[in-house]
Amino acid sequence: MGRVTDPSEMLITTGSQEGMDLLCSVLLNDGDTIIVEGPTYPGALHAMRNRGARFLTAPCDKDGLIVENLPAIIEQGRKDGHKIKFIYSIVNFQNPSGATLSTERRKKLLEIAEQYDLIIFEDDPYGHLSYTGEHKPTIFSMDKNGRVVYACSFSKILAPGTRVAWIVGDATLMRKIAMVKQGTNLCTSVVAQALVYEYCRLGHLDGFLPKIVAHYAKKSAAMDEAFKKHLPANTIYHTPEGGFFYWLQIPGIDSNALFMKAVEKGVAFVTGPAFYPDATGKDFMRTCFTFAQPNEIEEGAKRLAAAIKEL
Amino acid sequence: MGRVTDPSEMLITTGSQEGMDLLCSVLLNDGDTIIVEGPTYPGALHAMRNRGARFLTAPCDKDGLIVENLPAIIEQGRKDGHKIKFIYSIVNFQNPSGATLSTERRKKLLEIAEQYDLIIFEDDPYGHLSYTGEHKPTIFSMDKNGRVVYACSFSKILAPGTRVAWIVGDATLMRKIAMVKQGTNLCTSVVAQALVYEYCRLGHLDGFLPKIVAHYAKKSAAMDEAFKKHLPANTIYHTPEGGFFYWLQIPGIDSNALFMKAVEKGVAFVTGPAFYPDATGKDFMRTCFTFAQPNEIEEGAKRLAAAIKEL
Fold it and tell me: What is residue B1's predicted lDDT score, i.e. its pLDDT?
């Protein structure tokens, strides 16, 4: 994570999802606001909504969250009565956009958080899955004032069913989060923790990670090729350099209607509005390349193209 | 649990603690009220408080919750503006009192819940640990109208660190709880679930349970004997027929002051006020017999008696 951490700064959680839930529990009162990326991970929106959150959405481009827009969003939000508690960013190979926040923007984001006295929740489930070998410094490693809570997980690099993840951040905040966790489930399964620990200690993760990175990189390349070959020429996407997802925009299409048509043809995706708190993003869709084989990915792209044509 | 259940009525949780947290999340708005037993499990109070609960406390005797008092408590509570959402009862070998709710009172409790349109959360972590071989029917088995949520756990009969428990109840309510759980941690570790499943499937739990029951029964007997021999004659307690705990009252003593004195002598207990939402129960204390060896239990009783004498 780019800097030495003390055990008091760290908490094992039942998936990163729980880190989000607990952070919300500690930081939010009913009706408080979180700044999220548009688009963002729907599971985070679900956790946040369960804890009574409202949202302000900050747009993204191929380099992630456009941090230059944040001061205006924050200032207008505060004028409109929003009590903004934190900024939520998935920094690497974002879900769903696949974008990675540039190093310059990471620095700038931290400066803005300082300036407006906000916490950053730096969610990083995909950071280890870089298909170019490049890794950018975490915002957590730049933080001198306990303003960043960083979350990572074994879900995407070992198995999601282990439900073992971790958050690191300011020790006082972590202590509050641990107190809430005692009320929700006491602790994360020590059986699952022990298994993950042994797996890592014996070097299996170090051996497994390059294999899984190569495995997914091949599938990502297959999807890129299939999309270039089969999807309509007006389809817009940026080839991700890591992670799980392609984020497609077909200007003017209704992704909910397309979804029904696509399912008829035996192919599915997640519709764009799921990734926006206000259910915009109508002409976007997210596809995932991790499970299907390259030949299936090509077949899927063909069927998706046929569904688009029929719409 | 006394009746056949459908999978849609059941949810695996990360400990019973999580069942409580999720039920509160679904049923409570900020400031809503739960009727709890006085005394009750402090971890439940913690979960409930985190979800914004207020409390009404119903007194107990050696047969558990004195259900005859409930109508007056409910009616007065409602007059005082309490929005009562559910009744929380630990039905077998209660934590901390050791009391088991009589069958008559179980029936009556369900009738009262019907009459006043309340949910019952029937928490049963200790039910399998009966040292007399007697098991009373669950309230859940008597329920015809989806009014009872029953919780049980592997924590006390296998190992607490597995964090595998379950709740059963009305399918519609369970579905809502599952939705909230998706926001908090997606699911309970499937690694931990698979281990528990295999352990049970191979018959190890069936083999282990009689051993652990005999093991704890011996320790309970040792504590009973040691307390009868060493504690002052005015000490009041009911010998539990299962579970983990003795609940001692020494009229007039300040258990917080006694705790400091006892710790000096190298023996500890949990002070009474921890078990009441309003921190009453000053002259009560809870002792646990599961970890110490019989000779250590006797030594502990001696030291506790010496601390009482010095106070």
Answer: 83
